[in-house]
């Protein structure tokens, strides 16, 4: 990356593995699981989703979609959590809009906020996945796969820079393959 990139007041240039005109993707300081990354607007004064301009909004969500596809491919995820906590009352801890992209797998859970709804699912594939989930221990079984925030440890600067470099290389290959498949 040529110029410094900030996530709110935090210099994150070495954590960034993708940069577009108005957005960037970076590895997470305290990932829930491997592959947990963030997509963030470049403009630091964007605290809430409603602060994006129309151009920034288009770029931001194109970036979220690209990184979504890449993380699902790279980490061979069955599903992904895509989450925005918009404001401190919603759990936003850094005052800069960001979207979490978190790989999820059939064998350990189906996401953090839908457990109350799981009994309401009626589609056949969801019922099959629900059974797999329940058979793997359900809510209790998932706890060994995603640690609570107070039990997660920070990743070192060197580890994040290394992970970002590897993801940037993989994303470049992924984009080249995707581009060839589209032709």
UniProtKB/TrEMBL annotation:
Cofactor dependence: Mn(2+)
Domain annotation HIT: ranges: 3-115
EC numbers on record: 3.6.1.29
Residues noted as binding substrate in the record, renumbered to the chain: 28, 85, 91-94, 100
Basic and acidic residues composition-biased segments: 135-155
Keywords: Hydrolase, Nucleotide-binding
Catalyzed reaction equations: P(1),P(3)-bis(5'-adenosyl) triphosphate + H2O = AMP + ADP + 2 H(+)
Residues the record marks as site: Important for induction of apoptosis: 115
Histidine triad motif (motif): residue ranges: 96-100
Ranges for region Disordered: 135-164
Catalytic residues identified in the record: 98
GO-annotated molecular function: bis(5'-adenosyl)-triphosphatase activity; nucleotide binding
Source domain of life: Eukaryota
Subunit (UniProt): Homodimer.
Function: Cleaves A-5'-PPP-5'A to yield AMP and ADP. Can cleave all dinucleoside polyphosphates, provided the phosphate chain contains at least 3 phosphates and that 1 of the 2 bases composing the nucleotide is a purine. Is most effective on dinucleoside triphosphates. Negatively regulates intracellular dinucleoside polyphosphate levels, which elevate following heat shock.
Name by which UniProt lists this protein: Bis(5'-adenosyl)-triphosphatase
């Amino acid at each position: 990356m040529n110029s410094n990139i900030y996530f709110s007041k935090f210099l994150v240039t070495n954590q960034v593995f993708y940069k577009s005109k108005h957005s960037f993707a970076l590895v997470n300081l305290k990932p829930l699981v491997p592959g947990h990354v963030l997509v963030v607007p470049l403009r630091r004064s964007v605290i809430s989703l409603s602060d994006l301009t129309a151009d920034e909004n288009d770029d931001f969500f194109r970036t979220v979609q690209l990184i979504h596809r890449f993380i699902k491919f790279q980490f061979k995820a069955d599903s992904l959590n895509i989450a925005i906590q918009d404001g401190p009352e919603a759990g936003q801890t850094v005052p800069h809009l960001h979207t979490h992209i978190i790989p999820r797998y059939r064998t350990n859970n189906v996401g953090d906020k839908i457990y109350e709804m799981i009994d309401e699912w009626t589609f056949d594939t969801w019922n099959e996945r629900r059974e797999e989930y329940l058979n793997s221990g359900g809510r209790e079984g998932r706890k060994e796969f995603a640690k609570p925030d107070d039990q997660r440890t920070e990743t070192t600067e060197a580890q994040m820079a290394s992970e970002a470099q590897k993801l940037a290389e993989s994303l470049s290959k992924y984009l080249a393959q995707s581009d060839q498949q589209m032709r």
